[in-house]
Design goal:
It contains 13 helices and 15 strands. By secondary structure, the protein is of the alpha/beta class.
């Protein structure tokens, strides 16, 4: 298991970040914040999907006023996302934000940043310093001849020092870029200098499969280096998809468990059963479970028996039939059209009564 860097501990509402706590999953609402009902509806969907912290954009005063009502009814801690106008951060703090996210590249200067920090300190809430490649301050672009990992890291360190100058230490830091090597380099540089909790993610990762792969590559690489206390997957998709992708990343790397792990073969010319419907049936059943079990659905005798033996439960297909496994032992031979039913029946029989009825 990867050893994680020991960072400072802070709280965002009822969620602990840093200090070895479980890596928290975040997402961001994609509704018009001024539409209170739609925004709350999306927050509730995020909560159901397993999100632990939600971020809400505050682009103007009307959105800030709506945030006040949203916060009163939110099942999740809320982060107010602030750009350009520090007064919006002050309003969000007044209205009960659990954390403020500010972008040092566009907040309007150091005095305004410090005013926000003083208000956050009085309210007892943290600030995330969010440095993005797309809004890096011009002076760092000039110093380094463009957007570089060094400039991104230096910007973050400068604003950390600024907050520390008034005794503010409830800091979360993020450096994000759509360029994954740059994101990795800047975050590893930053982690070598500070012990504040790090929020990690690949900004503007893209849609669908490409966005999920880019996010997994960037976030997963940092996590395996022990870097990262909370993550947000940024997809051009419904925010619940971001949460599901984040959960898959954390479970695949062994940092958290949210439910069963399904192993299935990609199929090839040796496959002699119709594997896709079988996998789909088993996957749909497993979606409703929270048990930490490993299930293998394999199509032939090459890797099938080995994978099935390493799983808690599994099947390996043959011509017109398959074998059912439990803890590495063959239970019985089953006709191929009954494999899904028999595997599901076996798993149900082993679960606690409350789970077996799912």
């Amino acid at each position: 298991m990867t050893t994680r860097s020991q960072t400072r501990t802070l709280r965002v509402g009822n969620v602990q970040i840093g200090g070895g706590a479980a890596i928290a999953i975040q997402s961001m609402t994609k509704t018009d914040t001024r539409d209170i009902a739609k925004t709350l509806g999306q927050i509730n969907k995020l909560h159901t999907a397993g999100c632990e912290i939600a971020r809400v954009a505050i682009p103007d005063i009307e959105a800030a006023e709506a945030f006040c009502e949203i916060k009163k009814n939110s099942p999740l801690p809320l982060v107010a996302d602030i750009h350009f106008d520090y007064k919006l951060a002050m309003l969000a703090i007044k209205y009960g934000a659990d954390k403020i996210r500010v972008n040092p590249g566009n907040i309007g200067g150091e005095e305004k940043m410090l005013e926000v920090a003083r208000a956050a300190k009085d309210a007892g809430i943290p600030i995330r310093i969010g440095v993005n490649s797309g809004s890096l301050e011009k002076k760092y672009i000039s110093i380094y001849g463009g957007i570089t990992s060094q400039g991104l890291c230096e910007s973050a360190l400068h604003h950390i020092n600024l907050l520390e100058s008034i005794g503010f230490y409830d800091i979360v830091v993020s450096i994000k870029a759509s360029n994954i090597p740059m994101m990795l380099e800047s975050c590893t540089q930053l982690a070598a200098y500070v012990n504040y909790p790090l929020h990690i993610g690949v900004t503007e990762a893209g849609p669908g499969v490409s966005g999920a792969v880019r996010s997994a590559a960037g976030i997963g690489s940092l996590l395996m280096m022990g870097i990262g206390d909370t993550i947000r997957v940024s997809l051009t998709s419904d925010p619940e998809d971001e949460v599901l992708c984040a959960k898959e990343i954390l479970q695949a790397l062994g940092f958290r468990v949210f439910g069963p792990t399904l192993i299935s073969c990609p199929t090839c010319g040796r496959t002699e059963i119709d594997l896709r419907p079988l996998v789909n049936d088993v996957d749909m059943f497993l979606q409703g479970l929270k048990d930490n079990i490993r299930v293998a659905v394999m199509g032939c005798a090459v890797n099938g028996p080995g994978e099935a033996r390493d799983a808690d439960y599994g099947v390996a297909g043959g011509k017109g039939f398959g074998v059912l496994f439990k803890n590495g032992n063959i239970i019985k031979k089953v006709p191929d059209d009954m494999l899904a039913d028999e595997l599901i029946k076996l798993i149900k029989s082993e679960l606690a009564p409350t789970q077996a009825q799912v």
